[in-house]
Design goal:
three-stranded antiparallel sheet; flat; 36% strand; 2 domains; 9 strands; alpha+beta; 182 residues; Immunoglobulin-like
Length: 182
């Protein structure tokens, strides 16, 4: 029996070590993925199309600006270059300036801005602009089913002509009995 226990113990130790290593490696990979997600979130600007009560309005105008990190050599002439990495935009302005504007529909847009000094040294940074669709709350009618009577507004036509600067709307109230529980 002793001859079987020693190799079996050895195999179990190796399996446990391999399993532990796999769990550790999976955790490291998971942590790296979380870091990438957090970095992407930190570079994302999220906006939404303004609610203007017009369902045909489906675009937003976005302005993104870039500035130099503190400590950059003062006095150097800096040129900027914006490049659209993905997404269809309607127009873009300021591709050679520190401030860039564009118009687009709801979606995700990624840009790279490159700053180059007069010595031809350059560095780039990415930004992700997430344009959300125009917000719209669903209208929810509320009916009062309490013991008191509910009221419904009924439009009556005015008896005589209203002055030109006054909207001719007269509202009257019609009593509606509350439903009776069976």
């Amino acid at each position: 029996m002793k001859t079987i226990e020693t190799p079996l113990t050895f195999v179990l130790i190796i399996l446990c070590f391999g399993f532990t290593y796999k769990i550790y490696n999976d955790q490291v990979n998971l942590d790296e993925e979380k870091d990438k997600i957090e970095e992407r979130k930190s570079k994302t600007i999220s906006i939404e199309v303004d609610h203007d009560s017009d369902p045909k309005t489906t675009t937003a105008v976005v302005t993104v600006s870039s500035h130099l990190k503190e400590g950059t050599d003062e006095g150097d002439k800096i040129t900027y270059s914006w490049k659209k990495d993905n997404g269809d935009i309607i127009w873009m302005d300021g591709e050679k300036k520190s401030v860039m504007s564009f118009e687009a529909k709801a979606g995700e847009y990624e840009f790279t801005v490159t700053a180059t000094d007069n010595y031809k040294a350059s560095s780039s940074e990415n930004v992700i602009v997430l344009i959300n669709e125009e917000p719209n709350e669903t209208p929810i009618p509320i009916i009062n089913y309490g013991k008191e009577e509910s009221t419904v507004a009924v439009k009556k036509s005015p008896e005589k002509e209203a002055p030109a600067d006054v909207e001719p709307v007269v509202m009257d109230t019609l009593a509606v009995p509350a439903p009776v529980a069976e």
